[in-house]
Amino acid sequence: MFKHPKESQVSITELMLPSHSNFSGKIHGGHILNLMDQIAFACASKHSQHYCVTASVNRVDFLNPIEVGELVTLKASVNYTGRTSMVVGLRVESENIQTGEVKHCNSSYFTMVAKDEHGNNVAVPGIILDTEQAVRRFARSIARQQQAKHRSTKFKSSEFKIEEHIESIKQQNAKIEL
């Protein structure tokens, strides 16, 4: 079975309140991460028609601060489907209600795994790729998976070669005392 990404796309908009802010008066990153996890769950669950859990989050860069009183919109779409997992692409934007200015605040990729009622992984429907953008997003997810496997192998303690890294570390704000 295959489903179109449009069938499970989810979007939410929320007003940012003073209770969501940190000590500098900006919206707390943890609040945004919580919202991102919720919408990734909703999108993946809608696609798979099962309860889903977050397996990993691929990099969250906070590009622009979000102010109290702004509207924050989160958009989620399934970009990739494996056997039991899905990569949900998320985009976060804020809008100043008074000026109408919209800022891109961050984008991220959540890998979600579908579970049955006993907590076992369950197969998910495949995804229909009918645009060049959909193919690009799917291919990018494959590339990210391959990069993650390479990174985890390169720095595994049994594979790590300290001499390959000493010189670059010496140029950083660190002191080696071995």
TrEMBL record:
<dbReference type="Pfam" id="PF03061">
    <property type="entry name" value="4HBT"/>
</dbReference>
<dbReference type="GO" id="GO:0005829">
    <property type="term" value="C:cytosol"/>
</dbReference>
<protein>
    <submittedName>
        <fullName>Acyl-CoA thioesterase</fullName>
    </submittedName>
</protein>
<comment type="similarity">
    <text>Belongs to the acyl coenzyme A hydrolase family.</text>
</comment>
<keyword id="KW-0378">Hydrolase</keyword>
<dbReference type="InterPro" id="IPR006683">
    <property type="entry name" value="Thioestr_dom"/>
</dbReference>
<dbReference type="GO" id="GO:0006637">
    <property type="term" value="P:acyl-CoA metabolic process"/>
</dbReference>
<dbReference type="InterPro" id="IPR029069">
    <property type="entry name" value="HotDog_dom_sf"/>
</dbReference>
<dbReference type="GO" id="GO:0052816">
    <property type="term" value="F:long-chain fatty acyl-CoA hydrolase activity"/>
</dbReference>
<feature type="domain" description="HotDog ACOT-type">
    <location>
        <begin position="6"/>
        <end position="118"/>
    </location>
</feature>
<dbReference type="InterPro" id="IPR040170">
    <property type="entry name" value="Cytosol_ACT"/>
</dbReference>
<dbReference type="InterPro" id="IPR033120">
    <property type="entry name" value="HOTDOG_ACOT"/>
</dbReference>
